[in-house]
Amino acid sequence: MTCLKRIIVFVLALVILAGCAIKPAAPPGKADERLELIPRSRESSPGPHCLPAELNVHFLDVGQGDSILIQFPDGRNMLVDAGGNDDASTIVSYLKKTGVKKLDYLIGTHPHEDHIGSLDTVINNFQIGEVIMPKVTHTTRTFRDVLEAIDRKGLQIRPAKAGVSIMEDGLLAARVLAPCGEDYNELNDYSAVIMLTCGEVSFLLSGDAEALSEKEILASGAAVKADVLKVGHHGSNSSTSAAFLKAVGPRYAVISVGAENDYGHPHQVTLDRLKKQGVEVIRTDQQGTVLFTTDGKELSFTTEK
Ligand SMILES: [Zn+2]
Questions:
Q1: How many whole angstroms from 208 Cα to the centroid of ligand 1?
Q2: Can you tell me the distance from the alpha carbon of 148 to that of 133, in angstroms, rounded to the nearest whole number?
Q3: Higher pLDDT among residues 20 and 205, named by residue
Q4: How many whole angstroms from 133 Cα to the centroid of ligand 1?
Q5: Which tens digit of pLDDT belongs to each residue from 192-243?
Q6: C-alpha angle 160/111/123, rounded to 5°?
Q7: How close is the Cα of 298 to the center of ligand 1, in Å?
Q8: Beta strands in 185-279 (DSSP E)
Q9: pLDDT tier at 153 (50, 70, 90 boundaries)?
Q10: Ligand 1: distance of its center to the CA of 237 in Å?
Q11: What is the whole-number distance in angstroms between the Cα of residue 116 and the centre of ligand 1?
Q12: Measured in angstroms, how far is the CA atom of residue 235 from the centroid of ligand 1?
């Protein structure tokens, strides 16, 4: 190597070294923070997170009653309520048609027949993970049937109460916002109210919780903002108080209700309140089963009657 070549090599080496030296080192934790900011939708490998697969939330048309199937992207399933006693075949065949074999989380929001009526048949027909119900009993045959089905399978009931986290996994979460108290006059106010979040999209499933429970939820300081509100108590005027609706600020309101029911649900005052706030109302009595799909950012729905 000539002297000139040696000098050139030396100078080049110096330039490279200097380049390395002046490049600022990444602060500790910076790379991790950056990763956190990238929504999981852009990650390539599917995992137990919201994205890139989708979350499906089905509001089944069970007439005057509730039954909501949630399919998590990793294959886990949750069922919130199981309609009335007469809805067993509708619910079981819908779950089977949808490919459900196991319900990882089975929630009975409160012991009224139009919510827990077919829970016993569901328990008998599917593998069950956790059963979650509020700590309240009822004297009906329907409620006894549910307890017996739970007992026969050797399952335990996890009490639903404000602050309980049913599941939290990456960008997915299902948390219980109510009941906040332990003693109510109305069975409806024992309703397990579930906040389901998937990335930036959230669903508030409010069972039959009435104005008293809504007030307690607001007082608890829980985050209630949601894109979709499952309207409390089938659109009764005893739920969906103005303050609660304002705080939730939903884009869509699902009313799970039977056509020409004996209670006059949904009540006009509730419909007016929703309209005034510019919420799009979807009714199972008019539009049938409603299926929401989200990737954690976008939200869309279809209906099937
Ligand atoms: Zn009800």
A1: 5
A2: 14
A3: 205
A4: 15
A5: 999 999 999 999 999 999 999 999 999 999 999 999 999 999 999 999 999 9
A6: 80
A7: 30
A8: 193-198, 201-205, 228-230, 252-255
A9: very high
A10: 13
A11: 9
A12: 10
Query: For the whole model, what pTM was predicted?
Result: 0.84
Say which CATH class 51-304 falls into.
alpha beta
Q: Is the peptide bond before 52 cis (omega within 30 degrees of 0)?
A: yes
Distances (CA, A) of 229 to 7, 96, 100, 203: 73, 26, 24, 6
**Closest to 78 in 3D by CA, of 100, 52, 51, 48:** 100
Question: Rounded distance, CA 10 to CA 13, Å?
Answer: 5
Angle at 80 between CA 241 and CA 208, to 5 degrees: 25
Q: Which pair of structure tokens corresponds to residue 145?
A: 């049937």
Expressed in angstroms and rounded, the spacing between residue 233 Cα and the centre of ligand 1 is 5
| Sequence ranges of the domains in the chain | 51-304
- Which residues face 290 on adjacent strands? 59, 303
Q: How far is the CA of 40 from the centre of ligand 1 (A)?
A: 36
Using the mean position of ligand 1's atoms as its centre, give its distance from the Cα of residue 234 in Å.
6
Backbone angles phi, psi at 155, to 5 degrees: -90, 160
* 3-class DSSP state of 251: coil
Q: How far is the CA of 156 from the centre of ligand 1 (A)?
A: 24
CA distances to 3, 8, 162 from 15, rounded to whole Å, are: 18, 11, 62
Query: How remote is the CA of residue 25 from the centroid of ligand 1, in Å?
Result: 59
Q: Per the omega criterion (within 30 degrees of 0), is the bond before 46 cis?
A: no
* Ligand 1 center to 232 CA (angstroms): 8
Helix (H, G, I), strand (E, B) or coil at 132: strand
| Cα(13) to centroid(ligand 1), Å | 77
H-helix or E-strand spanning residue 180: none
Place of tokens 């307690």: 216
Q: Residue 173, exposed/middle/buried by CB under 10 A (0-12, 13-18, 19+)?
A: middle
Token pair 């729905």 in the structure block, residue: 301
How many Å lie between the centroid of ligand 1 and the Cα of residue 17? 72
